[in-house]
Design a protein that fits this description.
By secondary structure, the protein is of the alpha+beta class. The protein is built from twelve helices and ten strands. The strands form two sheets. A five-stranded antiparallel beta sheet has the order 1-8-3-6-9. A hairpin with a 2-residue loop joins strand 4 and strand 5.
Length: 280
């Protein structure tokens, strides 16, 4: 199994990650710490945390992980880990193509639920034990065994079903730190991407100063308000292209008013044109 470090070295991880398959799994144990840059992925990600001292910031919310927590990071979520290198960090990371999840009984539902509440799932007892037991079987399944690919697919589906069921049940209290005003701003932006958005308009909408909005938003998300809006619009455009929309349709249906501005921004973000992205 290829390690995540190898993906970084190969340039396949980079800022956003790279996934061509339905899924990819990494079983990682290391002591490499640091405060990494904010980034996002075009795929969904599950982190099954086993040990270490790690804090994840996801869409402005700060989650302090505890052993056997499950973190759900949806495609497009702007996030970063803060890792204490003094303790060994062990986790299972699963990258998932959202189209693959949707076509399998809407197994992406757990990510949608998490966005509305908490992206951190903290279970106890039998549910937690069963999920991590299946996860270990999934990463440990031998490559030379008969019908190995089918077995791995089956184990992954079982794992995802268990996680989706767990999300709909009550879990223990999950600790996270956030600014309720910035939480509301983020929700507002994502609900109004097709409207004209500006720092002035958002500040007025929430009765906060322009200065506070700009500085607090950057502190919690790693992005300026305008760069956050642009990233979310470009992600929406990419999703529309994946569904068959033309470049111009994707432009106007993602909140852009000027096609030339959209083309320039898209190429800068994804390193290819919208047409090339759609072809891929």
């Amino acid at each position: 199994m290829k390690s995540l470090d190898n993906y970084i070295a190969d340039g396949e991880y980079g800022k956003r990650g790279y996934l061509k398959e339905n899924y990819r799994v990494f079983n990682i144990k290391d002591s490499r710490g640091g405060d990494f840059a904010f980034h996002y992925h075009e795929f969904d990600k599950i982190v099954l945390f086993i040990a270490g001292s790690v804090t994840y910031i996801v869409e402005g919310r700060e989650y302090v992980l505890k052993p056997y927590d499950i973190l759900l990071v949806r495609h497009g979520d702007i996030h970063k880990p803060i890792i204490d290198s003094s303790t060994e960090y062990e986790r299972i990371v699963i990258w998932l193509d959202n189209g693959f999840l949707k076509t399998n009984h809407a197994l992406d539902s757990c990510f949608d639920v998490a966005v509305g509440s908490s992206r951190l799932l903290r279970l106890s007892g039998e549910k937690r034990a069963k999920i991590f037991s299946v996860a270990r079987e999934f990463i440990g399944d031998g490559e030379s065994e008969f019908a190995n690919d089918l077995m791995r697919d089956t184990l992954l589906l079982q794992l995802l079903i268990l996680i989706n069921r767990a999300v709909t049940d009550e879990s223990e209290a999950v600790d996270f730190v956030s600014d309720s005003r910035i939480d509301s701003v983020i929700d507002y932006i994502n609900a109004n991407l097709l409207s004209e958005l500006s720092v002035e308009k958002i500040a007025k909408e929430f009765f906060i100063s322009r200065y506070y909005l700009m500085h607090r938003f950057k502190e919690l998300t790693g992005k300026t308000v305008l760069s956050y809006i642009q990233s979310k619009r470009l992600l929406r455009a990419a999703a529309l292209l994946g569904k068959g929309c033309s470049a111009k349709e994707a432009c106007y249906k993602s909140g852009y008013r000027d096609y030339s501005v959209f083309l320039k921004a898209f190429k800068k973000e994804f390193d290819i044109t919208p047409t090339e992205y759609k072809r891929q």
